């Protein structure tokens, strides 16, 4: 097969990451056997092209360009194994043909507009503003451009005898499209194409006319255009420029699939990879892989299922008039046959196969990732040397450098680079002190390189990783911890993602106990945020939402608990009570749900006052209107204290909390106590109630100091009938036995005074009404002797 | 959307077996079968259809899909859409039948399962009456065969004394049999289908013979996937089916339209007075149902727990109709939140422990803060615990 010289140089228009394009490019290269290959990609990458042939290089990988002095400004050119550009690159390297990158140098791309940043630069190659594929698809009578392209190009295997024919047809179609949309071509494209033409001319001068260019189909007509060197130079003149550095970084299928960042993003990298890699029978192989995956997840999937799925996929393709089953048909068949109609198990196939978990590898010889540079820069500016031997570091978070150091260490920990371990500080445990133990191990360099996939600076990488962790966390607990860590690391940008995940987990968590476990950490995080001056309004909103859900769900969660579980619940009750006291009460508009239009409209807003109800007074009385969180929590406590099926220890603690907070008076508490300690109540239950009411961390001190409390208990104890008393005694002993000896003695003395003296506000026995100053002064000489002579003022 | 057709036709979901004689309905029936009601469309499709047809199919698979999804034929005949929903669902269903696999239509009540199955059978076999209605009392003879005992006693066992089930008749004729509410049948009756579906034969041991299905035989079953206390399909039986899950209406607007239309029809047949401005309340009921069903608020910003009930469109219709009756007979004729609150509560709280928490969380975290929903919040707090 000979390529007529008139056609040289050969322009191969492709769709980025199209396996059919890749196959066609391979065939075309083999047929044309060019003297050199030009590939769309930043011109500076020529020096790095050789690494693509390194045995340790495994796609998906990306060319990463970043500004030398600002690693945050970076751009990516991803390549998968099934990318036509990668195929061309590998073919050229394997055959030993020189290969060049033709696109505008990254120096200009990065200098022009930092927002081109994360890979937007390729957005328009196959799909510029007026989507040329959509145009072509519509012309061919197809609604879905992706599907049309798949049918017309990607699913066709080696159909025609001439491997170059499809490219010619595509070039013609693109030429027509560009003529029609000439004005819509973005200025940036014109500049890029001018540069590509210049590179093409240079290559022709060097290698002759037998050159193959692999570029986005959209650019083919522009490269075929006859322009003058001077015109192209003029377009490129005066472009801003920054010093850039390039390297290869590992990439993932998941990031290839990302719709946002990489413009030419593809929805199904796993499927395309499979189409490219499968030697034959792609549908059968695909179904077998799906079945294997589902079997691993314990779905009963047999070989008979696979057979039926393949039949259904082929039947669907026939019904829809497609040449072969595409992704739509296989997905429909997998859903109907292998997944029993369930979108849940289909989700597994989508996630693991259609997108896939493939992670690329880059040889050790590739230049250092920008993340490492950023880290080195930070280490220098913060005067933190990476030393192998452990050393302790005490940080005062009020200082600028120390706060920055703390943030850096926390961010590195989020990235899995455990340079510092939190250690108890030497000087106190205040919230503005933080202790670390630093130890830089050689493998941490590897960790930094691995973390390079998350971003180019420590901050952006930690943000991206935090958002990822939030998405994939299983339990509410993990997400609350993550939120705390984000605050510690000062990752304000990651907070929305983490808080979104947090709100979702909280809403779906059916266990009020888990919510109760999460709330204290949230309240704590709010306080940290305050110390570090982070904006915590969103966090407060989420914390309030969690508190709200606890108010609703806690009474049900406290019913029918075993003794040990009830004890744990009592502790949670205390923790939640403390945490709720720390939470800011919502402003007039209860912001428990992120309402897009707070307080808008004519509605006066949900206040406890008369709402728009027709007859406010009676309704407002019957139905407690929307109120403050503290009121709602008090209501929950009341429901707990009076709950029939709530465990005794929890009821007692709720009653005590109400009493301490002044929310329940002596009479009400007495009634609650009387009910809880009635003879009809099983003794164990009654003792648990007393334990909840009077036991716990605070010991019996409040009983000693609060006469009202003691009088209540005493009155009840006095009223216990003699025959019941022996049954109650051991239980009371259990509660009171835990007190300090001093408290016990004081209680004993109080009890010895008898119920008559239980209203002794005026005078305790042995005390006069007024202090006797003379007698008090008598002790002073002895004190002077003990404490030493008075220091002269 | 998907349920519109069921709802547009009162009683679409209630199909009665025409009995062993397969009696054709007289001209004036409350509701004619699909193959009679749309006979002209089927005839036009068959005339225009030049694609290959599977054995004993009246139409090619592509024509069946057109019959269900609607379209215009070359001769100008307009085919009305029978199923308004994702095209994919119909294509998978038709292809399943064409590849000789049994089809299982799953979905909550009111997703047009029965409607779709009837029209599939009508288009494929021209006969939608080979129907087994699954209930807890459905016996094996409804799936296999029964006996005419008078004959059995008089003449002894023989083919003449055998009373074939709809499934058996479909096997003999190469037609499409339908099984409604498959999961309501006792498990042992369900399992009688396994041999029929895998071996395509039905042994009759009493006569020492068997009935072998002729090409064209297939089976469409429908089942409710959200109901509790049903007889789950054994994995052996499940394996014989390709499963298609019919979705609920895709958008709130579609659902509001369906509910409003159906409520209007029901209201007229119940002779309720017309409601001046019920759409706002209908929208609210649909919003509540959709949000709880989907587990996320309409603005997509807050996740919610879902209650155990199905909260289908059909239930929204009954809540609104009940509210209308309340408003008409006991209220001032205007549909107010207080009229629908009790109905919504009853639909949402099916499981007293779990659903109550779900409902209260929804009330407190979503309804309470929503603009213009204060009346509704109060009404719910009044009827609620």
UniProtKB/TrEMBL annotation, chain A:
<feature type="compositionally biased region" description="Basic and acidic residues">
    <location>
        <begin position="586"/>
        <end position="596"/>
    </location>
</feature>
<protein>
    <submittedName>
        <fullName>Uncharacterized protein</fullName>
    </submittedName>
</protein>
<dbReference type="InterPro" id="IPR043737">
    <property type="entry name" value="DUF5682"/>
</dbReference>
<dbReference type="InterPro" id="IPR050458">
    <property type="entry name" value="LolB"/>
</dbReference>
<dbReference type="Pfam" id="PF18934">
    <property type="entry name" value="DUF5682"/>
</dbReference>
<feature type="compositionally biased region" description="Pro residues">
    <location>
        <begin position="605"/>
        <end position="617"/>
    </location>
</feature>
<feature type="region of interest" description="Disordered">
    <location>
        <begin position="581"/>
        <end position="628"/>
    </location>
</feature>
TrEMBL record, chain B:
<dbReference type="GO" id="GO:0005524">
    <property type="term" value="F:ATP binding"/>
</dbReference>
<dbReference type="InterPro" id="IPR027417">
    <property type="entry name" value="P-loop_NTPase"/>
</dbReference>
<dbReference type="InterPro" id="IPR050764">
    <property type="entry name" value="CbbQ/NirQ/NorQ/GpvN"/>
</dbReference>
<feature type="domain" description="ATPase dynein-related AAA">
    <location>
        <begin position="103"/>
        <end position="241"/>
    </location>
</feature>
<dbReference type="Pfam" id="PF07728">
    <property type="entry name" value="AAA_5"/>
</dbReference>
<feature type="region of interest" description="Disordered">
    <location>
        <begin position="1"/>
        <end position="23"/>
    </location>
</feature>
<protein>
    <submittedName>
        <fullName>ATPase</fullName>
    </submittedName>
</protein>
<dbReference type="InterPro" id="IPR011704">
    <property type="entry name" value="ATPase_dyneun-rel_AAA"/>
</dbReference>
<dbReference type="GO" id="GO:0016887">
    <property type="term" value="F:ATP hydrolysis activity"/>
</dbReference>
């Amino acid at each position: 097969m000979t390529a007529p010289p008139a056609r040289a140089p050969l322009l191969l228009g492709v769709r980025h990451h199209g396996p059919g394009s890749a196959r066609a490019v391979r065939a075309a290269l083999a047929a044309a056997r060019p003297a050199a290959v030009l590939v769309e990609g930043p011109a500076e990458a020529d020096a790095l092209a050789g690494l693509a042939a390194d045995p340790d290089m495994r796609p998906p990988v990306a060319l990463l360009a970043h500004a030398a002095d600002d690693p945050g400004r970076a751009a990516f050119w991803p390549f998968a194994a099934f990318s036509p550009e990668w195929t061309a690159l590998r073919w050229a390297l394997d055959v030993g043909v020189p290969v060049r990158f033709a696109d505008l140098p990254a120096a200009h791309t990065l200098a022009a507009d930092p927002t081109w940043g994360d890979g937007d630069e390729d957005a328009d190659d196959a799909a510029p503003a007026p989507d040329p594929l959509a145009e072509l698809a519509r012309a061919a009578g197809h609604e879905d451009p992706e599907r049309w392209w798949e049918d017309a190009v990607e699913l066709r295997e080696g159909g025609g005898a001439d491997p170059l024919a499809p490219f010619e047809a595509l070039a013609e179609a693109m030429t027509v499209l560009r003529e029609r949309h000439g004005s819509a071509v973005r200025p940036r494209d014109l500049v890029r194409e001018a540069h590509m033409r210049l590179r093409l001319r240079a290559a022709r001068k060097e290698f002759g006319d037998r050159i193959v260019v692999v570029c986005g189909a959209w650019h083919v007509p522009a490269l075929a255009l006859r322009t003058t060197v001077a015109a192209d130079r003029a377009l490129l003149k005066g472009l801003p420029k920054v010093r850039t550095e390039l390297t290869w970084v590992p990439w993932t299928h998941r990031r290839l699939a990302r719709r946002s960042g990489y413009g030419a993003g593809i929805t199904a990298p796993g499927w395309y990879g499979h189409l490219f890699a499968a030697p034959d029978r792609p549908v059968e192989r695909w179904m077998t892989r799906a079945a294997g995956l589902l079997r691993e997840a314990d779905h009963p999937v047999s070989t008979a299922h696979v057979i039926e799925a393949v039949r259904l996929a082929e039947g669907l393709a026939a019904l829809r008039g497609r040449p072969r089953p595409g992704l739509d048909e296989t997905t429909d068949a997998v859903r109907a046959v292998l997944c029993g109609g369930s979108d849940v198990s289909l989700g597994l196939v989508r996630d693991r196969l259609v997108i896939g978990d493939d992670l690329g590898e880059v040889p050790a010889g590739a230049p250092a990732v920008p993340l490492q540079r950023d880290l080195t820069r930070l280490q220098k500016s913060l005067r933190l040397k990476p030393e192998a031997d452990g050393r302790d570091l005490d940080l005062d978070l009020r200082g600028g450098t120390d706060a920055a150091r703390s943030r850096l260490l926390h961010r590195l920990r989020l990235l899995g680079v455990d340079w510092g371990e939190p250690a108890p500080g030497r000087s106190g445990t205040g919230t503005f002190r933080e202790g670390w133990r630093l130890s830089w191990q050689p493998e941490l360099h590897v960790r930094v390189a691995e973390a390079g996939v998350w971003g180019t600076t420590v901050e952006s990488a930690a943000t991206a990783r935090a958002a990822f962790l939030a998405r994939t966390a299983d339990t509410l607990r993990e997400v609350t911890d993550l939120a705390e860590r984000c605050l510690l690391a000062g990752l304000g940008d990651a907070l929305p993602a983490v808080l979104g995940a947090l709100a979702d987990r909280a809403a779906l968590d059916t266990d009020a106990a888990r919510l109760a476990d999460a709330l204290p950490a949230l309240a704590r995080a709010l306080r940290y945020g305050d110390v570090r001056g982070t904006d915590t309004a969103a966090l407060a909103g989420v914390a309030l939402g969690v508190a709200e859900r606890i108010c609703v769900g806690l009474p049900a969660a406290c019913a029918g608990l075993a003794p040990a579980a009830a004890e744990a619940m009592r502790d949670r009750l205390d923790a939640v009570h403390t945490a709720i006291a720390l939470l800011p009460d919502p402003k007039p508009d209860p912001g428990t749900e992120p309402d897009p239009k707070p307080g808008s409209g004519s509605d006066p807003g949900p206040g406890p006052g008369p709402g728009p109800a027709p007859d406010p007074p009676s309704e407002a009385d019957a139905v407690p209107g929307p109120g403050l969180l503290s009121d709602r929590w008090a209501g929950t406590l009341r429901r707990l204290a009076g709950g029939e099926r709530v465990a005794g220890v929890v009821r007692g603690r709720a009653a005590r909390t109400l009493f301490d907070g002044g929310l329940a008076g002596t009479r009400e508490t007495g009634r609650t106590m009387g009910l809880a300690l009635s003879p009809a109540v099983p003794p164990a239950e009654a003792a648990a109630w007393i334990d909840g009411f009077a036991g716990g961390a605070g010991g019996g001190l409040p009983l000693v100091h609060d006469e009202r409390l003691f009088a209540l208990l005493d009155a009840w104890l006095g009223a216990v009938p003699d025959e019941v008393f022996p049954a109650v005694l051991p239980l009371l002993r259990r509660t009171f036995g835990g007190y300090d000896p001093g408290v016990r003695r004081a209680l004993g003395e109080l009890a010895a005074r008898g119920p008559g003296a239980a209203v002794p506000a005026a005078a305790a026995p042995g005390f006069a009404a007024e202090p006797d100053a003379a007698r008090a002064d008598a002790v002073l000489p002895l004190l002077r002797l003990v404490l030493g002579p008075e220091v002269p003022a | 959307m998907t349920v519109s057709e069921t709802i547009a036709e009162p009683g679409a979901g209630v199909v009665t077996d025409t009995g062993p004689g397969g009696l054709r309905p007289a001209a004036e029936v409350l509701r004619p079968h699909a193959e009679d009601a749309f006979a002209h469309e089927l005839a036009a499709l068959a005339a225009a259809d030049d694609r290959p047809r599977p054995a004993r199919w009246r139409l090619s698979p592509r024509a069946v899909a057109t019959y269900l999804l609607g379209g215009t034929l070359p001769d100008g005949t307009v085919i009305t859409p029978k199923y308004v929903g994702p095209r994919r669902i119909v294509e998978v269903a038709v292809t399943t039948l064409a590849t000789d696999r049994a089809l299982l239509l799953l979905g909550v009540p009111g997703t047009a399962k029965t409607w779709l199955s009837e029209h599939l059978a009508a288009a494929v076999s021209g006969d939608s009456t080979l129907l087994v209605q699954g209930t807890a009392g459905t016996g094996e003879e409804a799936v296999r065969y029964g006996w005419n005992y008078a004959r059995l006693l008089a003449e002894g066992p023989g083919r003449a004394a055998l009373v074939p089930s709809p499934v058996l008749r479909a096997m003999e004729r190469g037609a499409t049999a339908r099984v409604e509410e498959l999961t309501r049948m006792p498990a042992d009756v369900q399992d009688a289908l396994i041999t029929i579906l895998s071996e395509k034969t039905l042994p009759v041991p009493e006569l020492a013979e068997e009935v072998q299905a002729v090409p064209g035989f297939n089976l469409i079953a429908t089942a409710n996937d959200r109901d509790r206390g049903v007889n789950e399909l054994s994995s052996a039986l499940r394996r014989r089916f390709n499963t298609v899950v019919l979705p609920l209406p895709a958008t709130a607007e579609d659902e509001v339209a369906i509910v409003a239309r159906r409520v209007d029809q029901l209201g007229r047949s119940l002779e309720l007075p017309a409601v001046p401005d019920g759409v706002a309340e209908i929208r609210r009921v649909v919003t509540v149902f959709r949000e709880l069903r989907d587990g996320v608020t309409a603005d997509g910003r807050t996740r919610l727990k879902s209650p155990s009930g199905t909260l289908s469109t059909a239930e929204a219709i009954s809540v609104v109709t009940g509210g209308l009756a309340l408003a008409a007979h006991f209220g001032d004729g205007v549909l107010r939140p207080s009229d629908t609150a009790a109905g919504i509560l009853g639909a949402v709280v099916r499981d007293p422990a779990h659903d109550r928490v779900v409902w209260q969380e929804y009330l407190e975290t979503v309804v309470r803060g929503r603009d213009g929903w204060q009346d509704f919040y109060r009404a719910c707090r009044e009827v609620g615990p």
